[in-house]
Amino acid sequence: MNALIPRLNRRSAQPALRSVHSADRLFDDLWRGFAVPPTWAKDSPQAGFVPRVDIREDDEAVVLSAELPGVEEKDFEVVLEDDVLILKGEKRSEHESDEKGYHRVETFSGSFERRFALPFDADPDAVKASYKNGVLTVTVPKPSEAKPQVRQIEITTP
Fold it and tell me: Could you tell me the domains of the chain?
């Protein structure tokens, strides 16, 4: 069991906590690293895949751009469910190497799903999606009631 001892933090007057058994914690962290890939191993097969997404909004539409490198069009789908845009699919990869007398094949398959709440109820028939060079672009037009109404107001003087 780790006992916690208060100590003063050099940057503030608030006490900070530290573990008495720091060597035990060090070894626990070291061995735990073998079961879970380290955070720097983003491209390792075990790291999983979460598409990076940019969303921008203008007066006419919400545009979502998702990076899906190495994912084929048949392996993902875009769904509009009420006011939620859903991007889901599966990424598969296989790495093969022949080196110094051995043959190694690593395969990875993992599913992903991202959900984006829209600030309005979208018309499903008006949503457009295109996929080119590993980038998915989804355009969701705003309904007329969601578009900002701009009108010049006449100013009168008494």
Answer: 4-35 (no CATH), 49-143 (2.60.40.790)
